[in-house]
């Protein structure tokens, strides 16, 4: 007789600090992931499909959605705030990765005005591809959660994804022939 099928397994995958709403103070949390795994004789085969992800306070044991962790990420009230660090946490996400030419800064300001975007938005700079020198420019909310580099050039707040920053460090963004390019 062969015993096989699916089984739901919950595993603690990470721990960290957060503000627990029930305890009303800083506590340790554990990240729990529940997966639907195929098993043979109750031995899981493979990682399985992710069914649920949640955090649980290690003190009061209450479960919370993972999104609770994002609530503690600092946000920036204005683009000017992106140009100056407000805390040590912001300082670790701040620096000059890229520079803008006068023509690039002028075109960004024109697009911002023409698009009637909120003044609180920053300029997100992303490479279109690693091989190509073309750059995509969009407008985004600056959030100091560690995933983005925040900076400024020509008085414009800039946002660069940390994964893209190594490819862009030290480059100058220019606008010519209707496109943004890096040098």
UniProtKB/TrEMBL annotation:
Q: Which InterPro entries match?
A: HesB-like_dom_sf
Domain of life the protein comes from: Bacteria
Q: What is this protein called?
A: Zinc-ribbon 15 domain-containing protein
Query: What species was this sequence derived from?
Result: Lignipirellula cremea
- What broad taxonomic lineage does this protein's source fall under? Bacteria, Pseudomonadati, Planctomycetota, Planctomycetia, Pirellulales
């Amino acid at each position: 007789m062969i015993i096989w099928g699916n089984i739901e397994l919950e595993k603690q995958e990470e721990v960290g600090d957060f503000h627990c709403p029930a305890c009303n103070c800083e506590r340790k949390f554990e990240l729990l992931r529940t997966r639907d795994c195929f098993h043979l004789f109750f031995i899981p085969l493979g990682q399985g499909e992710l069914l649920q992800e949640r955090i649980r306070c290690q003190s009061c044991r209450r479960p919370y959605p993972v999104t609770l962790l994002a609530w503690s990420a600092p946000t920036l009230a204005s683009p000017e705030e992106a140009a100056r660090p407000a805390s040590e946490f912001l300082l670790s996400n701040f620096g000059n990765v890229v520079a803008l030419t006068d023509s690039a800064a002028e075109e960004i300001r024109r697009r911002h005005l023409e698009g009637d975007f909120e003044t609180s938005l920053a300029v997100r700079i992303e490479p279109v591809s690693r091989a190509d020198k073309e750059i995509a420019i969009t407008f985004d909310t600056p959030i100091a959660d560690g995933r983005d580099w925040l900076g400024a050039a020509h008085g414009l707040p800039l946002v660069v994804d940390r994964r893209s920053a190594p490819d862009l460090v030290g480059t100058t963004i220019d606008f010519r022939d209707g496109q943004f390019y890096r040098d």
